[in-house]
Amino acid sequence: MREAVIVEAVRTPIGKRNGSLAGVHPVDLAAMALNELISRTGIDPVLVDDVQWGCVGQVGDQSSNVGRYAVLAAGWPESVPAVTVNRACGSSQQALDQAVFAVMAGAQDLVVAGGVESMSRVPLGATRQSGEPYGPAAKARYDGFEFNQIVGAELIAERWGFTRRQLDEYASLSHERAAAAIDSGAFEQQTFAVPTESGPFTVDEGLRRGTTPEKLAGLKPVAKENGMIHAGNSSQISDGASAVLVTTPERARELGLRPIVRYHSAVVVGSDPVLMLTGPIPATQKVLARAGLSIGDIGAFEVNEAFSSVTLAWLAELGADIKVVNPLGGAIAVGHPLGASGTILMTRLAHHMRDNGIRYGLQTMCEGGGTANAAIVELVAE
After folding, report:
1. Whole-model pTM above 0.70?
2. Which positions are annotated as active-site residues?
3. Backbone angles phi, psi at 176, to 5 degrees
4. Which tens digit of pLDDT belongs to each residue from 161-217?
């Protein structure tokens, strides 16, 4: 079987809800990410065999195959196809897996994977405004439980015995690390300026500098009275897009491109849909076993910060060194534009590995409904 490598990975700065990116149509935002790949690699887009594109809220401005319309908005040839993928928060990580699998299988040679979400324009939950998404049979299987991520995050905190103080300490750490990453220029090579009516948008804007557990202690719980989950230890509602280019090492050489990372192993798992967000634990265990690696072999982790309790439960079960888990901060600090987050995390991970000479990196994400993707990538030696 052929190898698959990522030769370029880009993302927009992440905009907060009703912030700098709210005025940009998600199709146009996605098109900008596509064209940034072309600008950086110099390839002719006619060579792209397919575009796998993640998006969760596929209604309104993001309906009717947003990936395809992004290709057209980018001015790419009409011959370039695209499909839009929905695996909840892991949509663009699933899109990336599908791009990788197509290349590894020999079905395609050059594939773009990415995603977009404008949560300002297509609000969270917009697809559920009419109808019952779960159906009576699924609900009956779980005694009529109303599946809810916030409730799941609260249940995780209770099951693992976390205190609110611990959740808020982790949230504060995310902001601290994101601030350090921005100040050091760690994101400059992976992001690009997005033109807006207010001028170029260049820096993730969800960051709240100086966040402390003491400040977060004043926020009201959202799941229940005296609960532990609140806006400050949850991922932010955001806007953003990201894209990566996948090919084989041989095709990369032909095109004069230098791979960043090789896709080593990838898995997807199902998990308890009531807790809903624990999937990254078995997904990580499964991908490590498939790769023949241990937790100590991994030099950097991106574990999507849906809620503090999710990441802390993962840490408690896997025993990873917190110093290398979300070393640049995460979604609590800079945001979680649902369908874009999978390739945003991979963009962060791949660039961080290259910048610091890290051999193995692992990415995993919890997903609505109780599923999770996990992938291991390996740095390609120059």
Report:
1. yes
2. 89, 336, 366
3. -60, -45
4. 999 999 999 999 999 999 999 999 999 999 999 999 999 999 999 999 999 999 999
